[in-house]
Amino acid sequence: MIRTNLSTRPFYNERAVHAWLLLVALAVLGATAFNLSRVIRYSRSDTRLATQASQDEARAAELHKDALRVRASVDPGLVELASAEARQANDLIDRRTFSWTELFNRFETTLPDEVRIAAVRPRLDRTRGIVLTISVVARSVDDVSLFMEQLERTGAFANLQPTAEHFDDQGQLESILEMSYVPTAAKPAEPQGAPQR
Known about the structure:
Blueprint: H1 14-73, H2 76-97, H3 100-110, E1 115-125, E2 129-138, H4 141-154, E3 157-167, E4 173-181
Antiparallel strand pairs: 1-2, 2-4, 3-4
C-alpha cells in the first residue's frame, strides 16, 4: 500500500470558500448601503426639523414681543373697570332670572296647611347660585319635614337643611331653612300626598 501523495498539488475545496466569501461580502455591502441611505435620510430630516425649530423659535419670540407691546398699551385701570362692569352686569342678569312669582307659586303648591312662611331672604352665592333662607312657623317638626320633602320633590330646591329651630310663646315651632334654588330646574307641580286646602 502506497502512503505518499503522488499529485504535485493537493486538491482543496477553494470554490466553496470563495462562494461563501462572496456571499458575506455582498451581505456586508448591502448592509452598508442600507445604513448609508438611513444616515442620509435621517440627516436630511434632522436638518429640516432643525430649520423648522429655529423658525418656530423666531416666530415665538416675535409673538412674545407683540404680546409685551400689547400688554404695555393696555391700561390696567380700564381692564379693572371693564371687569367690574362685567361683574355688575352678571349680578343684574342673575337677579333678573329670579322670579318672586315663580318662587311663591312653588311654595303655594308645596306648603302644608299647618305651615306658614314668615320670611324669605334670597342671596347670590358664587358657588351655590341662589340661596334662600326661609323662616317658617309650624305646629310640629313633622309639618316642617313634610314641607321640606315636598320642596325637594319639585327639583328646584337642593341642599335643604334647617339652620335653627325653637318653640315660641304660643308653642309653635319656628324654623329657619336654608336651601339652594334653581328657578328653571323644574316646573311647579302639585306635591304628592299634600293635603288639599
